[in-house]
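Entry 12.
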Amino acid sequence: MRKLQRGIAATVLLIAATTAQAQSIVGRVVDAKTKEPLIGAVVSLQGTDTKTVTDTDGQFHFDHLSTTTPYTLLVKYVGYKNTTIDGVLSKASAAEDVLTVALKPDEQQLKGVTVTGVKRRNTVTAAVLEVKNSPVIVSNISAQDIKLTQDANAGEVIRRVPGVSLIDDKFVMVRGLAQRYNNVWMNGGAVPSSEADQRAFSFDMIPSNQIDNLTIVKSPTPEYPADYTGGFIMIDTKEIPLENAFHVSVGGNWNSASAFKSFLATKQSGTDFLGFDNGLRSLHGGIDATLANLGKNSGGNTMYSLSDNHLNNDWAVKNQHPWGDLKLAADWSHSWTLPAGKLGAIAAVNYTNEYRVYRDMLNNFYGAYDTANDRSNPLRLSTDNQYNHNVRLGALFNMTLLSASGKNKYQLKNIFNQIGNNRYTWREGLSAQSEPERSAEYYYRSRTTYTGQITGRHTLSGDALDWSVGYAYANRRLPDRRKYILYNEDDSKSDNYVWLYQNDISREWTSLDEHIVSANVNDEHQFAFGDWQPKVKVGAYGEYRTRKYTTRNFMYWYNAEGNSLPSGFRSMEMTSLLSNADNYGADKLYLLEDVNKINDYSGHNTLGAGYVSAALPFGRLDIHAGVRFEYNQMELISNSKSYETSHESHYYRHSDLFPSANATYKIDEKNQIRLSYGRSVNRPEFREVSPSVYYDFDLASNVEGNFNLKNCYIDNLDLRYEWYPSRGEMISLAAFYKHFDSPIEWVYTMAGGTDVIYSYANARSANNYGLELDIRKNLAFMGLPDLNWSFNGSLIHSRVNFEPGSNEESRAMQGQSPYLVNTGLFYKSQPLDLDIALLYNRIGKRIVGVGRSEGMDKNVKVPNSYEMPRDAFDLTVSKRFGKHVELKLAARDLLNQDITFKQFTTVSVGGSSKKVQEVTRRYKPGRNLQATVTFKL
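Predicted 3D structure (tokens):
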């Protein structure tokens, strides 16, 4: 027994000694010229079976190595020359003595390389190679680019793409074209519009840490739906991980106009912090609920009770002082080696809670200029104070199964986002009749989106087959949007504002639900006719989309005679009057329903498509051409009567062929020229053809659809020169031209002389052409190898044409920017683990709303509205401390220039021409200071 104990003790001591002496080799694999980390490089210890792959920072490590044996490292990476390093010794403090391995590109290897398995597209180098090898004209940005800029969401990320600008921090314009001319897919499937009143996708809903890469296809091609003209935007979220990891990030943001300052807020529900209402604001029993009533008033209208319908009758506004914004994120990634192959999973959650205040915001609108008296014609002169509390909750879960052969890949991708916006607006100003007025809006909106796909990719003998099935859902809830307006009719009492009209105090509930089911299959076959190896690709796509929009509107009222309300109640402090339960009842305040079934609609859209394309190599010339057929049927179901459900369907059916051809001529390995032509379409959305009317408080006007909208067809022509000085670098110059037949625009006209109505209309035609310059360059040639420069700029011109004899004048297209500039300097120090970026953005003056002429006089025209240019500078800093902690600092919109909108018009006064400009909106958004700490566990 004693010998056994001694043996065990000796073994333990031996193991302890061996463990104490075991050492490590830690290294980093980078591009020899750009110093960019190479992700997924294979590093092996020659003479052993030990190998590993580099992580997202290009790092690798070997543990438990001998203290005396020198090792030989073999490093391999596709597209680079293999590198062998002899005589590497392990060290106890290897983490502090990192070996850097610089790989040189192997251009000969790149010519014929074939990769199976997981294609990495999330690095700067991979993104540039993707652009270079694409058969069509594309622009993109990788996860590594995103990490450098520290952009928070896809809306901020996409601003870095050439020819792209952003509206309202959410809606993307490509090549100066409004968001309606762009299409969005996520993970290979369609996504629903997140807005009820316009075709758009809110890119701010997608957190940047969920994005693997973002690509914009700028020339038509048969493989993608024809319903895009500016760009087809593809967002791919992350899939199989390179390493097992768990990250937690905690951060804050301080907006100079909001943090630590007065913030007016209304009553919140217990789940507002999660981005949705828990029922506090909802109608009890749902939007179609039957409400408790108090009988009929003297006019024969049903009186609905304020007390017996579980309504939130608290109109009080409380003053808060938020400290700042909270940002939380966590992600987990893991991979498993199975007998059948490799399984990877990625999960991520993110949370943002932010406050934004826009103080003393001008909110004006002007009608047709008064030429007789040579003066402006204000229809609204007001100042708003707007308080926004925004919450975003997002989650992602992806799984990827890669077969052992690397020829089959199956993926399950899910992304969910919940956004809540609680907004209170206080407005003071003058009406069109120069009557002083005060008004307020209590607004809460929640948006839920979910997108899920199951996909498969298979490499067969001579064929590459891929398929997908997807489901997407989006809703928008506006529960209990409340507003009131009061008027001052006595100039001698400047603070005496009175409730005058029946519709001056209202409550509205709105519900929108949209579902999309889609399926897609594509097969590519490579032929071999000696040395000539063309490819033919065929595919089919089907999509079914359904939408339902329901609204209910109620107004506060009272009996003019015989009521029991306090004397002078119409001029009382309104929040106190409306919040006091003693003022509710049949002989006091009650609700009247403003029934208008015409504002409700539903719809079904069926899209069926098939295509054939061919990739034809002719030496240095590659041609990618084909044709796509699409059948689209949209059924709009609306009500013909306002007072009852009276469904009638309107059908919009079209069958179209969309040819396209893309040619690429390779001058040499670093230079190539592209030429492309394609036909595309822009179809009206449900809301745009619906007769539904919605009152927009920001615009202080009604928004309605247009039954008579028709499809817009576009012919697209592109010419681009591309130069690739070295790996990870690109310089391109592109020219483009587009002709629009019947473009759809956002317009406004006058009703009743002073009321503005916003809607949609077709013009006869339009032409759009411009230049784009994109530069991604390392500055080593200037002696600055740690500095990279990115520049993308666009110059764009457009002209809209109308029928001969029309009162409308030719002008720029609505939403078009005449120029866009995005540029940035990126400093990266490997020894210091430090990244610094300075970014700049500017967009040119663009039309955001088109004024239509009044009557038969061409000179009597409501002025067009423009968003004015502004300069935006961002500074970001990222510092890593060891392997487990990273600190990110950012200062955004450093100049904090005014956001300004103006109306411009040219009129004839006294026989001479005069240019008139009037400010319609102006406010400061505030500077943003951010700090985030990420822990790698």
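Annotation: The longest strand covers residues 378-403. The radius of gyration is 31 Å.
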